[in-house]
């Protein structure tokens, strides 16, 4: 499914107080059709054309059209726009052999099954896209509006292998020509390789990395992340995860590439997902090895950033007794989190590793825990303390429900203790554990 091509404008979700938009009389619910005479198709068009100091907004309100004059000067306009509706998002026509959405169990909410491949969401939110379905008009728009950075699912540079990995799509799966075109246009990109042992590892992985490297600095980074497999892979290609031995070898190989590329490019360029280090039992790189944590949201350096921040924040906890609570974690990170909390003075928190039965397979990260799995596992424990703490990554932004639509309130009712959703940030966790810290900060 492709996004709508006609310019239907963007809807204002909120107007911040004391901003140029508020002073001009813009309201939530207004539909902005034009900016300085330019038709607006989406949020990107609005941002692109609203960079002027003086704006004439063509607005539709309650069926009537009007023009609002906005004097910005050096100030931001001050509007928040509604997110695209499902029918306005370009969906993915590929059938990647490793696609996580194809591995979801049945019966979950419909929005979880939407596969986007929309360059606009890549630019705005960091979603990874394949570039296979881009039309000439869309490529030209990326170049004209300088939509950078983009996040690109590469997986392999060998055209035949990439075509197989993407599920043999009708569109060309050759990636290097498109990356080269965007690089020539000055577009900055972050590449991703979902590593599938027996498919795009070994010599193919080396080829991919070394064919992407000449595109640096326009291809700024290449992330290698392990394939995620659930227990719901009926009628899908046979895949497996890395063994511990393979993970250790991959760590050594990538570190060797980083040393070579740092000398040649001035950057390590290729980075491994945290899961690989944890699975290998290998030490995590130091913070400076992540070169600013440019792709932390892709699971590259999140653990290092969290643990370094935790150590710094924990220096404030010199004495005292923590709250008596149960801290929920996925099975992958639970041992490390328990070690961090165990080093705190007077810590009475208990870290519980919750196995993921809902997805099964190799899924062991905290962000994919469901309320049902947490309830089933914790219900069998004798003492949960005075509360259960759940990392906010396990609940959906906005309405705050788990992936299975269980709410924290329902989980609290079933467990018989309060459930607190905590931001996955060291200070937030420590403040929740030691109320005295929160009171003094």
Tell me about this structure.
The protein has 441 residues and is α/β, with parallel strands linked by helices. The chain has three domains: 10-81, PDZ domain (Pdz3 Domain, Roll); 89-298, pyruvate-formate lyase- activating enzyme (Alpha-Beta Horseshoe); 307-440, Rossmann fold (3-Layer(aba) Sandwich). It contains 15 helices and 15 strands. Helix 8 (244-265) packs across helix 9 and helix 12 runs parallel beside helix 13 (408-415). The longest helix is centred in the middle third of the chain and has 22 residues, at 244-265. The protein is globular and about 65 Å long. Residues 1-6 have low confidence and may be disordered.
| Helix percent band | 25-40%
Strand tally is 15
CATH superfamily of the largest domain: pyruvate-formate lyase- activating enzyme
Shape: globular
The biggest beta sheet reads: 6 strands, antiparallel
End-to-end Cα distance, whole Å, is: 50 Å
**Overall structural domain count:** 3
CATH-derived topology of the largest domain: pyruvate-formate lyase- activating enzyme
State Rg. Answer: 24 Å
Q: Mean of the pLDDT scores?
A: 92
Order of helices and strands: EHEEHEEEHEHEHHEHEHEHHEHEHEHEHH
Number of helices: 15
User: Oligomeric form of this entry?
Assistant: single chain
């Amino acid at each position: 499914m492709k996004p709508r091509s006609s310019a239907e404008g963007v809807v204002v979700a909120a107007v911040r107080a004391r901003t140029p938009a508020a002073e001009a009389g813009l309201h939530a619910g207004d539909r902005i059709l034009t900016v300085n005479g330019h038709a607006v198709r989406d949020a990107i068009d609005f941002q692109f054309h609203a960079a002027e100091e003086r704006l004439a907004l063509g607005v539709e309100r309650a069926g009537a059209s009007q023009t609002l004059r906005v004097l910005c000067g050096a100030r931001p306009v001050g509007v928040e726009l509604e997110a695209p509706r499902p029918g306005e998002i370009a969906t993915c026509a590929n059938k990647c052999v490793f696609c996580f959405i194809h591995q979801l169990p049945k019966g979950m909410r419909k929005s979880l099954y939407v596969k986007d491949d929309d360059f606009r969401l890549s630019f705005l939110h960091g979603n990874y896209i394949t570039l296979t379905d881009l039309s000439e008009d869309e490529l030209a728009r990326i170049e004209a509006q300088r939509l950078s950075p983009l996040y690109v699912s590469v997986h392999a540079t060998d055209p035949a292998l990439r075509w197989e990995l993407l599920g043999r799509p009708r569109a060309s799966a050759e990636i290097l020509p498109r990356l080269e075109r965007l690089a020539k246009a000055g577009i900055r990109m972050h590449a991703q390789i979902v590593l599938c042992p027996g498919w795009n590892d070994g010599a193919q992985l080396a080829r991919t990395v070394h064919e992407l490297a000449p595109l640096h600095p326009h291809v700024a980074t290449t992330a290698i992340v392990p394939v995620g497999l659930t227990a719901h892979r009926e009628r899908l290609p046979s895949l497996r995860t890395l063994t511990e031995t393979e993970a250790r070898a991959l760590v050594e190989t990538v570190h060797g590439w980083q040393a070579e590329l740092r000398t040649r490019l001035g950057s390590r360029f290729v980075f491994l997902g945290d899961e690989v280090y944890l699975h290998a039992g290998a030490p995590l790189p130091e913070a400076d090895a992540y070169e600013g944590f440019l792709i932390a949201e892709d699971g590259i350096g999140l653990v290092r950033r969290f643990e370094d921040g935790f150590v710094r924040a924990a220096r404030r906890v010199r004495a005292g007794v923590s709250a008596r609570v149960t801290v929920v974690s996925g099975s992958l990170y639970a041992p490390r989190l328990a070690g961090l909390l165990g080093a705190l003075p007077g810590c009475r928190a208990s870290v519980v590793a919750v196995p993921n039965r809902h997805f099964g397979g190799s899924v062991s990260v905290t962000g994919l825990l469901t309320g049902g799995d947490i309830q089933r596992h914790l219900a069998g424990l004798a003492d949960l303390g005075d509360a259960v703490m759940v990392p906010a990554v396990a609940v959906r932004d906005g309405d705050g429900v788990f992936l299975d639509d269980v709410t924290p309130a329902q989980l609290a009712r079933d467990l018989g203790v309060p459930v607190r959703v905590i931001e996955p940030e060291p200070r937030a966790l420590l403040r929740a554990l030691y109320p005295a810290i929160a009171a003094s900060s």
